[in-house]
Design a protein that fits this description.
Length: about 180
């Protein structure tokens, strides 16, 4: 079980780093798109119509990829004082319960994202000329990553294996529980 968990955490570290880099690139791309839209509107007096739609789509990607990385890195809000003040058996039960709930939430995001995308795949966005289903693909991908990273955290807790780092020397994912 520990060998599986070690392999899982190495894979999750690579996926997390890739998601973080894509989210960062998306943030930069969205900023450039919005700047181009403002420049086009006020300087060229010709507003590019595609900017808003594409910027919103890119924003959905970087928000959901970043949220998944936040799940893996335990960077989201939490009720830490409740864990610290709980007796060890209750603390363990709360950690397992939390990870199972997050895993189920990620699976629900994935399932509903796929359903929503499939349901409107034949519709087209007139401005971009692509399927409206692409609006829900970030939800499905983000949900699957959230579920996968939560599964990793659950396995790490159950096997007491230390997680693989994100990939940058100054980042550490080791959490004391």
């Amino acid at each position: 079980m520990e060998a599986f968990t070690r392999a899982l955490t190495r894979l999750c570290a690579k996926l997390s780093l890739a998601a973080l880099l894509l989210a960062g690139a998306g943030l930069v791309a969205m900023t450039a798109m919005v700047a181009w839209g403002v420049f086009g509107r006020y300087v060229l007096n010709d507003t590019p119509t595609w900017v808003e739609a594409l910027a919103l789509w890119v924003m959905a990607w970087f928000i959901l990829l970043g949220a998944a990385v936040g799940v893996r890195e335990s960077d989201h809000l939490g009720f830490e004082i409740g864990l610290v003040m709980s007796p060890p058996p209750l603390r363990a039960a709360l950690i397992v319960f939390t990870e199972v709930i997050v895993l189920l939430f990620g699976l629900a995001m994935f399932g509903y994202g796929v359903q929503l995308a499939a349901g409107i795949w034949s519709d087209r966005m007139p401005i971009l000329g692509i399927s409206r289903g692409w609006d829900y693909v970030p939800m499905a991908v983000g949900g699957s990553l959230i579920a996968f990273f939560s599964f990793e955290k659950l396995m790490l807790f159950l096997t007491s294996v230390k997680p693989a780092p994100l990939g940058f020397a100054h980042f550490s994912t080791a959490q004391e529980v």
